[in-house]
Amino acid sequence: MRLHHMRVTAFGPFAGSQEVDFDALSAAGLFLLHGPTGAGKTSVLDAVCFALYGAVPGARQSPATPLRSDHAAPDVFTEVLLELTVSGRRLEVTRRPQQERPKKRGSGFTTEKAQTWLREYDPATGAWRALSRSHQEIGEELGQLIGMSREQFCQVVLLPQGEFAKFLRSDAEARGKLLGRLFDTRRFAAVEDRLAELRKTAERQVKDGDERLLALAQRMAQAAGDTADARAWPLPDARPGDPGLASAVLQWAAVARCGARERLDIASAAVATAESRQAAARRTAEETRRLAALQERYAQARSRADELAARRPELDELKDRLETARKAERVSPALEWQEQAQRAHRAATAERDRSRARLHPDLADAGAEQLAALERRMRQDLGALESARRAERRSAEIDEERNRLDRQARADEDVLTDTTAWLAGWESVRLGHQNRIDAAHEAAARAEQLAGQLEPATRRLAAARERDALQARSAEATRAHDASREAANTAHEHWLTLREERLRGIAAELAARLQEGEPCAVCGSAEHPAPARPGTGQVDRAAEDAAHQAYRRADRIRAEAEAALSRVREELAGARAAAGEADVAELADEAAELQREHRAARDAAAGLHEARLALASAEREHGQRLAAQRTAQENTAARTASREALEREQAALERELSQARAGASSVAEQAGLLERRAAILAEAVEAVRAVEDSAERLKEADGRLSEAAFRAGFDTPAAAAAALVDERGQRDIQHRLDAWQQERAAVTACLAEPETAAAGRAAPARTAEADAESAAAERALRDAASALAAARARCAELGTLSDAAAEETRGIGPLREEYERVARLAGLTAGTSADNERKMRLESYVLAARLEQVAAAATARLRRMSGGRYTLVHSDARGGRGRSGLGLHVVDAWTGRERDTATLSGGETFFASLALALGLADVVTDEAGGARLDTLFIDEGFGSLDDQTLDEVLDVLDSLRERDRSVGIVSHVGDLRRRIPTQLEVVKDRAGSTVRLQGVGAEG
Q1: How many degrees, rounded to 5, is the angle at CA 492 between CA 489 and CA 495?
Q2: Cα separation of 9 and 69, whole Å?
Q3: How far apart are CA 862 and CA 952, in angstroms?
């Protein structure tokens, strides 16, 4: 890779555009980049890195460190353009970072996205052709061509100040990190991580299996219980992952099963003994309970017999009462008839008294005939009121008609009031509707005007969008045209090459056509002593024709691509002519604004028809209001005449009604009063007559009752009534007598039973003691049965858990073998295994090989820089508690001893680190695919060297020109300006830094 030219604009400390001619600098092989502190020497290297990778080295790529120059004008874009040759291709890459720019319209700033362009120089045409504008495509293309990542480039091409001095003095871990980034040994670290992950997974699987096995053992211990066998042979004290855990658990399970089976046999024998004892105790308890029941039966029968004898007088009295009640039943019908007659007489008397209380005091003692005559006279007066009722109804109708006229009058007054108020505002309403119509007319005219502006704006927006799309198509067509032109040129050169080769071998082709005795078509001789023979790879006419046809096809494709490109460019020119250079977003905003204004005007114009309808509706309502006003005025005049006629008729009716009411408020009230009085008199007549009839029936009933009592043997009717007992009472007395007889018979039979009598004579039964003995035997049997069931369950559970433990052990075996194999490999690659004698990780082992190559490449230059004194060697020895593999020592030829690089002086450390950096650049270049690095930069460190060592170091750097390399030294050491004539000076100024080229006959 060789750098040719770079232009930086508004980048870092550079306010404007600064040009760097690397071709002029590289011509001398060794050049100096110098300037005051803070002028921007490192920014030149940052610009190179940014152009290639879109980022600057290391910590300078933080968000707090912007790339844009603070000295630059707001309208100047930050940009880096770099021209270089890599892998035989001359490229030009231009990058702009994301940055703020002033808005084109209005005030303030807007964010401009990052942009990248990549072009390639075509020697055939002498022109640049665009390759891509995609960040990703350009990054991938440059990465493949350079063959190094940004980190590798910054370590190999831009040798950073102090980095390799720290590398010399750092420990193995720090060296491993740097070498790992440069040589990309992540795949070896990934192998280590993967093996460690597999080891953890396998270990977790083994421990999970052991935990399940220990859980089964714990369950077996719980099932076995706290027995002497368990205490004598406890559960194995092991943890998950311990070897021998499975066999110990299985052995303990076998012992637990044997103990459980022994306890099962003992429990079976105990149950048989308890069953026999429980049966005997149960029989004894049953016999004792039977004797106690017979004794209780005898005692209850003896007590009941004594109670029956004591109740004998009471039962005789009940028997006499039952006989007297049965004689009184013959008097019951007469007694009931007398009671009914007496109740009817009392009711009739009470009703008569209530009726007389409602009569006038003068009629309190009147008889039935007198009261009936008064009723008939009142009925006659009631018939005479019918004419008055008709007059009263007509008067009510007149009142309703007058009320109706009043309601109509009020309604007409409301109509007149509302109509008068509405008509007063008619002119303002009419003017409002007319103004709406006028406004709608104006909106329609505005909408038509905006429609004329909207169509050109829409066409211009569509043209702008087509312009942007055609720009992309143009770029694509350009790439297709370039590719087809390259293919056509290649096919043409191939055809010409084959044609030339055929012409060189045409003699052999003509010789193949010669016939013996026939003249040669070239010389005319009939003899052919030494005809030409076809050589290797002879081109015949068919091959030439095929190549020519391929060329014609490629040329036709090129012509088609050229025509397509011309069409696209013509369309693009037309679109640009139609759209101009305006941005699509601006045109879209303009069209959208016109669209909104047009829509608003169109919506306003759409209300014209509605406004006209509203005006017509208002005019119709105006006519209706005038008609309603005239009708209300006419109705008012007609109602006055009707009201006067009704008042005259009602006055005549009131005079007639005043006589008929007789002091009542209305005829109906007077009629109701007469009706109620006639009803009271009729009710009183009926009540007087009912009392007379009920007295007669009561007298007859008393006579019949006295006769019936005498015949039944009672002195008076009252005695017969007192002896009466209803049917239910008689049944109760009879039931009590029958129950006494039945109970006396049952008690007598019970006392006569031989077994009961014998039990009564025997000693009292001891049931409590017998029941206690039976319950104790029952409890003993249940305890023995529970122990037997527990022993059986224990044996079954131990057997099941033992089978599960055996199955789990068989499953753990392969997992444990897999874990042991993976653990050995993981320990070996991680450097922790005893088999790894140097405790070296796999990644460290690979990096150690690379470090050996770097040390060998660095020693070739270190010997020249140190006058043959120092040699760099790689060491596998361990340092302290760290791991071996990345040690770096220096061999001092003056003493013949090997020592650590940290013992070198400051100047020795510099040229040793410089030699190491150059050697590392060679190794990384070879590792990255052999991409040639023609330009290197070395940043600082020369101030620590004496004059002689500085000359030797510069000689080594100058020798790099033998490989056509150029080396740029970045330093502010004054002595280097005298020793290196070709210089790029960075000048610091308040308005921004600038660069000047010195020692090559030009300045800029």
Answers
A1: 150
A2: 9
A3: 10
Lowest mean pLDDT among 38-42, 410-414, 601-605, 982-986: 601-605
Residue in this structure with the two tokens 């803070």, named with its chain if needed: 38
> How far is the C-alpha of 602 from the C-alpha of 589, rounded, in Å?
20
1001 phi-psi bin (left φ>0, alpha ψ -120 to 50, beta other): left
- Helices 172-183 + 906-927 axis angle, to 10: 30
- Beta-carbon count within 10 A of 803 CB: 12
**Tokens 């760290």 -> residue:** 882
660, 388 contact by CB (below 8 A): yes
If DSSP codes are grouped into helix, strand and coil, which group holds residue 120? Answer: strand
The DSSP line for 901-958 is GGGS-HHHHHHHHHHHHHHHHHHHHHHTT-----EEEEES-GGGS-HHHHHHHHHHHH
Q: What secondary structure does DSSP assign to 197-232, as a single string? A: HHHHHHHHHHHHHHHHHHHHHHHHHHHH-S-HHHHH
The alpha carbon dihedral of 319, 325, 326, 328 has a sign of positive
Look up tokens 């401009």; give the residue: 112
Q: Is the predicted pLDDT of residue 122 greater than 60, yes or no?
A: yes
* Cross-strand bridge partners of residue 985: 34, 996
* Residue 611 · residue 436 · CB < 8 Å: yes
Minimal CA–CA distance to 797: which of 267, 262, 261, 266? 261
First to last CA, the chain: 25
How confident is the model over 229-238, as a mean pLDDT?
63
**Cβ atoms < 10 Å from Cβ of 845:** 19
Tokens of 771: 């029941």
- CA-nearest of 54, 73, 66, 74 to 12 is 66
Q: Considering only CA atoms, which of 381, 382, 363 is closest in space to residue 371?
A: 363
- Strand arrangement, sheet containing 897-900: 870-875, 887-892, 897-900
Whole-model pTM above 0.70? Answer: no
Top pLDDT among 504 and 106 is at: 106
What is the Cα–Cα distance from 8 to 938, expressed in whole angstroms? 21
Q: Read off φ and ψ for residue 117, nearest 5 degrees.
A: -130, 140
Within 13 A of 376's CA, how many CA atoms are on the CB side?
5
For 540: left if phi > 0, alpha if psi spans -120 to 50, otherwise beta; the answer is: beta
Query: Concatenated DSSP letters for 590-608?
Result: HHHHHHHHHHHHHHHHTTH
CA–CA separation, 444 and 519 (whole Å): 101
pLDDT at 1004: 35
* CA atoms of 997 and 227, how far apart (whole Å): 100
Rg (CA), the chain: 68
CA distance 612 to 436: 9
Tens digits of per-residue pLDDT, 428-485?
888 887 887 888 788 777 777 777 777 777 777 787 788 778 788 888 888 888 898 8
The CA angle 719-721-727, to the nearest 5 degrees, is: 130
User: Can you list the positions of beta strands (E) in 242-333?
Assistant: none
